[in-house]
Amino acid sequence: QTRVYGRDRVRFMESLVVGDIAELKPGQGTLTLLTNEKGGITDDLIVTNTSEDHLYVVSNAGCADKDLAIFRGRAEELQATGSDVHLEVSDNALLALQGPSMARVLQAGLSDDLAKLSFMNSISTTVFGVPGCRVTRCGYTGEDGVEISVPAGQAVELAERLLDVPDVWLAGLAARDSLRLEAGLCLYGNDIDETVTPAEAGLMWTLG
């Protein structure tokens, strides 16, 4: 997870990804693709225009190091020409709560009205007593769900509080994989990689 600050943060991000970041409203995010010089997909990212003067970027865990190297290299190039952009790498953990009971379960631990949080939008809030969380209504299962960015030191605490709810269970990547296949969602490293372009992957809808 990376935060991008500075008045040129949108120009920085749009120089790397295929999406229209400038059109994102405060709190709104989008799935977009980080591409290489041949148009291949280096990673698929979620980029959110927060209401707190920065972009919030979520990389795939397996691609985080190479993504960060690309981000840092591009930031240095822009900084050398006088652009105002800088990066902050977060050590937050990411928990996904997915499924038809998600809204009922999570609402019990939120002061915010989850019904007002639409798909691909996010808020900074306290979740089950854990402050400093970012809740984004998205997921990789085809179900209604959220991804919760939580300070790493409190990730286990939050996970345990969620698991105390009878309708919440742990699920592994194989379970997630079966659901994303049913939903027709691409998996990086399996369906898409640096040799596959957005057109070849059927992801032209991500271009902005």
Automatic annotation (TrEMBL):
GO terms for cellular component: mitochondrion. Transmembrane segments: none annotated. It holds the Pfam family GCV_T. Residues 2-206 form the GCVT N-terminal domain. The glycine cleavage system is composed of four proteins: P, T, L and H. This is Aminomethyltransferase, mitochondrial. The gene is Amt_1.
